[in-house]
């Protein structure tokens, strides 16, 4: 009986001793402990970037894209993303520029002419032969009004695939440009652009290398990022938001160029001039006074190969008027010349020797190639057609009359006519030859409704045309469906 009692006494003693030792240690610790030292917080140079977990990685790139938002804009009738490279100056792909040029041509070909637009081919003290237009007669096409270019197209180049626009309402002043050759390989980069709704987007990646300027196949810069997910043009920026390159798709494949090469391309765009078949120079005041003219420019050179027939304008002529507009400078002539539609008749007045000669010429193509057919304008329908030779076009599958312009608000557009439609007949009269022009000219002044037979993608269509403004178009037959007498 003593043994259990001894065991209980020993256990109780151990428990009491343990409790006393714990209380003593706690008391000693509380009396001798010093305040905890809090380490100084190191300065955070780039707080968002130092959030290394993946959950914060995308947040940083989104903030970087939002910071670049003011230097990204949508330009042109196609609302294509553009990069602001200076105050009001936007660099983008060539597609919106081509849309602006097409709209200019559409307005010039389909608008109503004033009653006095039929110019008289008369000469003051001139021979009758000198008053004949080059390549045939036709109506004068006035220069396109400024409202036809609300998007402020400045320059474009199809071969480069780039265009420059002036933007009045841009929020930013342009990206800060930086040289990517200063960055080590592997540096983080991002491609920033705008989506279709105008919201900024970013594609993260990194720099692989920059290449020598002589190696142009890669565009001067190699990056590792999913550029296929970006839109047509994007600014390549570093972690500080500075622009180090440009990625764009101008129609010949995607390119990534450094900022240095981009500046060279911009310079090429601004120095690129349209091929003009007539080259002129300014006249000083003394020459004008001695010639007895108040305005005019000197024709220095005429490219005869650009005209269908031998041009009546000559080098040495003083060009006084172009399209019924007095000429004050070479810049004004260039603007008026570029506004004319290839194939249209333009009236002019020149001083040749001491004689004033009035005549007309058929506008050549933009590349100085001759235009063999003047378009037929059906202005009251908002429509223009033109003969095209398959041999002279990469897009036409056969010779024939094609729709080259349809006014957006015209009755032809409402009836369903589209540009590039192939014209087969007008009210049952076939127009399969260039000599069938009188049929189209008669339709242009018709006051009666008629039927157009067209081909579109190889399928025939019949479309009812009415000259009455505002009338609803008659029913259009379904694709490939020809109405019978049964």
Draw up the topology in text.
Blueprint: H1 2-32, H2 54-67, E1 72-75, E2 80-86, E3 89-93, H3 95-110, E4 153-157, E5 162-166, E6 188-194, E7 200-210, E8 221-225, E9 233-237, E10 243-249, E11 254-258, H4 259-271, E12 278-282, H5 285-291, E13 297-302, E14 318-322, E15 325-326, H6 330-339, E16 345-352, E17 355-362, E18 376-378, E19 383-388, E20 400-406, H7 411-415, E21 422-426, E22 429-430, H8 437-444, E23 450-456, E24 459-465
Antiparallel strand pairs: 1-2, 2-3, 3-5, 4-5, 6-7, 6-9, 7-8, 9-10, 10-11, 12-13, 13-14, 14-15, 14-16, 16-17, 18-19, 19-20, 20-21, 21-22, 21-23, 23-24
**Multimer state:** single chain
Count helical runs: 8
Kindly report how far apart the N and C termini lie: 129 Å
Query: Low-confidence stretches at least 5 residues in length (pLDDT < 50)?
Result: 25-49, 114-148, 213-218, 469-486
At CATH level 3, the topology of the largest domain is: Thrombin, subunit H
Task: Tell me about this structure.
This protein is an alpha+beta fold and 486 residues long. The protein has 3 domains: 47-94 and 158-272, Beta Barrel (Thrombin, subunit H), CATH 2.40.10.120; 114-142 and 274-362, Pdz3 Domain, CATH 2.30.42; 376-465, PDZ domain (Pdz3 Domain, Roll). The protein is 21% helix and 28% strand. It has 8 helices and 24 strands. The chain has helices at 2-32, 54-67, 95-110, 259-271, 285-291, 330-339, 411-415, 437-444; strands spanning 72-75, 80-86, 89-93, 153-157, 162-166, 188-194, 200-210, 221-225, 233-237, 243-249, 254-258, 278-282, 297-302, 318-322, 325-326, 345-352, 355-362, 376-378, 383-388, 400-406, 422-426, 429-430, 450-456, 459-465. The strands form 4 sheets. Strands 18, 19, 20, 21, 22, 23 and 24 form a 7-stranded antiparallel beta sheet that branches. The protein has a 6-stranded antiparallel beta sheet with strand order 8-7-6-9-10-11. Strand 6 (188-194) and strand 7 (200-210) form a beta hairpin. The termini are far apart.
